[in-house]
Amino acid sequence: MSELTLTVMRLGFLAVLWLFVIVAVQVIRSDLFGTRVTQRAAGRREAQTRPPQQRQQAAQAAQGRQQQNNNNRARRGAPTKLVVSEGSLAGTTVALQGQTITLGRAHDSTIVLDDDYASSRHARIYPDRDGNWIVEDLGSTNGTFMDRNRLTTPTPIPLGAPIRIGKTVIELRK
Amino acid sequence: MSVVTNTTTITSVGAPSRRNTELALLLFAVLIPVFAYANVGLATTDELPSGMLGYGLGLAALAGVAHLTVRKFAPYADPLLLPLVTLLNGMGLVFIWRLDQSPRLHQRAEALFGSFSPDTPKQLLYSAVGVALFVAVLVFLKDHRILQRYTYISMVVALILLILPMFFPAVNGAKIWISIPGVGTIQPGEFAKIIIAVFFSGYLMVKRDALALASRRFMGLYLPRGRDLGPILVIWGLSILILVFETDLGTSLLFFGLFVVMLYVATERTSWIVFGLLMSAVGAVGVATFEPHVQERVDAWLDPFAAFKDGTSDQVAQALMSFGSGGILGTGLGQGNSDLIGFAANSDFILATVGEELGLAGLMAFLLVYGLIVERGVRTALAARDPFGKLLAIGLSGAFALQVFVVAGGVMGLIPLTGMTMPFVAAGGSSVIANWALVGILLRISDTARRPAPAPTSPDAEPTQVVRVQ
Fold first, then answer.
1. B345, B338 Cβ separation under 8 angstroms
2. Region A81-173: CATH code
3. C-alpha to C-alpha distances, B351 to A79, A106, B321, B403, B407, nearest whole angstrom
4. How far is A87 from chain B (nearest CA, A)?
């Protein structure tokens, strides 16, 4: 066997060995798991230039939740988002994806209200079996109001009806 | 009014199964040793070796069986461990075969024992037994938490395995083998390593709060209470006893080191590491002053070339010369002279052959592969959800890492030489079999840790939404 062939084989073997190590490290890189944080809106500028609806759809698509999104779309007239229209959180939107939304001053609420008149667990909004959205007061001190009526029982929310909690007003929109 | 909404959604992402990645890497890991095998044959005899197909197919069959078992019984297990281990085992077979071809070792064996018997077929057989044990672990150990029930039984078994070699005659100065008539010699320390990791994890899981919280702060260190020092003193005493009666630094260092590592991981107290290092230094120096076998090893470590000239111990010097002649890129497979090491060339000192024939570049790749195995083990420990599984995964990968360090350090002259073997690469039945079982347990823990959580059933189990408003 010629010297040249042996040298080529020697270096070739080292190259193959290192290639294996590099491929293994690449596998580790693509193998990260744990929790994924999806940022819905990147910042101020984007928030102004892109309509909220479009942002949400992009985020939902990125999350791979297209299925539920389609289900929501399938029912005409069903609300797709919750919008805070007054109060310190005004402008916040939360996509309605069939999950329960809790409101209150507690840190684990979906919408954390920074409002002196809100209780720590003030109210929740959830879909019933038919997909209608229901608001329920969770025994708050100062009450949850729809139009001008204080809620005492879980009540279905009509599209666009203002729900008032302290100084905050939220409504459901398409 | 400026309005910025910043809504983040946090969803948990389960690891995908990754079995096909494993298969592709496994194929790669089988082809590399086959290439190396052809390389050795072409370099030594100018033709492709005749046994190439046999060994290649043998290795591929072992890898295939292991892969199918993982696919069936641990579908979410780590995709990297099996290919890495297969590569090491295959390369080990190639290096052992390469040393079997050496005329110097043939002459030496004929002069000493009257005949030469190749080690490669034996090693392939041991690898097969190892894979069988690996399959058995995955099939029968459905949940690693079952091992938790045997905490104190495993302590007794590990102690018996550690003490047993004291009653057998010393082989080459160290008493780490037991011989069973008809079966051959076994190195029980390799198996004790796994069993004692089970004991340590079960024990520390229960006791860690007492060891971590009841302590006083002194000069930035948390000093444990005197009575909490009990366990570490007992293990230390045992390691010293092993060192004195079995005259084996490796086993002793492995067990004490493993306990310190697990103690540190369980309690998060740096003081245990300080104590451990002090105690092992005191113990090693103390024993080295009166135990002649240990002293000889230490002398050979301090000045290997003086020991080479005296003729007391030429192995370390020969190994260093092998590394030197290999240089950066090595002499090429089958073209080195590492067979000059003579005794234990294909077991304890196989790393010298790697270093000579593949050079620094190849040796680093080997050490990286070992490092990746340890990394996957630690990653498994991070992902595991139960404390016992966490500690066991750390213990097993810590034992593996310590063993690699003790052997590689000994061969390279970093620490005194010990009687342990390089996992998977070195010739030796106990080591290969025990390490396959170790990897089996790691894969079982990793499968449990990476298995996706069951689908949410209640509406409240939807992803947590964090709404941040500025």
1. yes
2. 2.60.200.20
3. 68, 60, 12, 13, 9
4. 12
Angstrom distance (rounded) from CA B411 to CA B316: 6
CB contact under 8 A, B12 and A93: no
What's the start-to-end Cα distance of chain B, in Å?
Answer: 12
The answer to whether B131 and B149 are in contact (CB under 8 A) is: no
Neighbour tally for B58: CB within 10 Å: 18
Q: Answer yes or no: are the C-beta atoms of B429 and B186 closer than 8 Å.
A: yes
The percent helix, strand, coil of chain B (3-state, each to 5) is 70, 5, 25
A129–chain B Cβ distance below 8 A for any pair: no
DSSP codes, A83-133: EEEESTTTT-EEE-SS--EEEESSTTSSEE---TTS-SS-EEEEE-TTS-E
Using alpha carbons, select from B86, B53, B54 the residue that is nearest to residue B67. Answer: B86
Does A39 contact B362 at a Cβ distance shorter than 8 Å? no
For residue B196, the distance in angstroms to the closest alpha carbon of chain A comes to: 29
Report pTM: 0.73
Say which DSSP state A40 is in: S
Question: Within its chain, how far is the Cα of B32 from the centroid?
Answer: 21
Mean pLDDT of chain B: 84
d(Cα B259, Cα B262) in Å, to the nearest integer?
5
Domains of chain B, by residue range, sit at: 146-448
* Residues paired with residue B179 on neighbouring β-strands, in sequence order: B185
pLDDT tens digits along B22-55: 999 999 999 999 999 998 888 888 888 887 888 8
Residue of A9, A46, A72 best to disrupt the B interface, most CBs of B under 10 A: A9
Write the CA distances from B270 to B215, B219, B254, B264, integer angstroms: 12, 12, 19, 7
Nearest CA in chain B to A14: B362
Predicted confidence at residue A33, as pLDDT, reads: 57
Q: What does each C-alpha distance from B234 to B240, B241, B258 come to in angstroms? A: 10, 10, 14
Q: Do B32 and A16 touch (CB under 8 A)?
A: yes
Residue type, A52: P
Shortest CB distance from A31 goes to which of B5, B18, B365?
B18
Q: Interface pTM (ipTM) of the complex?
A: 0.85
Q: Are B313 and B307 in contact (CB under 8 A)?
A: yes
Per-residue pLDDT of B363-398, as tens digits, reads 999 999 999 999 999 999 988 888 999 999 999 999
Helix axes B387-412, B188-213, angle to 10 degrees: 120
Q: Tell me how close the Cα of B1 comes to any Cα of chain A, in angstroms.
A: 9
Helix (H) or strand (E) segment spanning residue B221? strand B221-224
CB-based contact A33 B467, cutoff 8 Å: no
Q: How many Å apart are CA B275 and CA B380, to the nearest integer?
A: 27
Sketch the domain layout of chain A as residue ranges.
81-173
Q: What is the mean pLDDT of residues B170-182?
A: 70
Determine the longest span between alpha carbons in chain B, in angstroms: 96
pLDDT > 60? residue B122:
yes
